[in-house]
Amino acid sequence: MPTMNSPNSVPADVKREITDTFGFVPSFFQTLPPNETKLFWTVVRDFQLSDKTALPGKVKELIGLGVASQIPCHYCTLFHTEAARLNGATEQEIQEAIFMAGVTRLGSTILNGAQIDETTFNKEVREIVAHLSAQ
C-alpha cells in the first residue's frame, strides 16, 4: 500500500497552480511530506516546466528519460517519455536518448570495472578533444 497523505495536505496555493498546469493534482503530490510539497512543485515549475532555462523542454525531458531509464524508474520513464513527446521529441530522438543512456552505462561499467587510471583517462580525453577540435 502506498504512503499517502490526504488531498488536503497539498497547500491551497500549490494545489491551485498544479491544477492550472495539469488540470488536477496528481496523486504523487500526496506522497510528499506536506512541508516539502511546495519545494518540489517550485523546482518542477521553475526549472523542469520553465521555458526560461538554457535547456529547452525537449532536451530536459530527454535527459530525464535517459536518467530514468538507468535508475531504473518505471514512473519517471513514462513521465519523461510523454513529456518529451509533448515538447516535440520524435520517436527517433526518444530512442536515441535511451540508447545514449545505455552507451554511457556500458562505458561506465567498463571503465569502473577495469579500474582505469583516472589521471591517464583525463589526459587521454583532453588529447581526444584537442585532436577533434583541430579537424
Condensed summary:
Helices cover 70% and strands 0% of the residues.
Description of the molecule:
- This protein is an all-alpha fold and 135 residues long.
- Helices cover 70% and strands 0% of the residues.
- It has six helices and no strands.
- It has helices at residues 12-22, 34-48, 57-70, 74-86, 91-114, 118-134.
- Helix 3 packs antiparallel against helix 4.
- The radius of gyration is 20 Å and the shape is elongated.
- It starts with 11 loop residues before the first helix and ends with a helix.
Topology:
Elements: H1 12-22, H2 34-48, H3 57-70, H4 74-86, H5 91-114, H6 118-134
Helix pairs in contact: 3-4, 3-5
Order of helices and strands: HHHHHH
Helix fraction, binned, reads: 55-70%
How far apart are the termini?
58 Å
What is the tally of helical segments?
6
For the structure shown, list the relevant keywords.
135 residues; mainly alpha; 6 helices
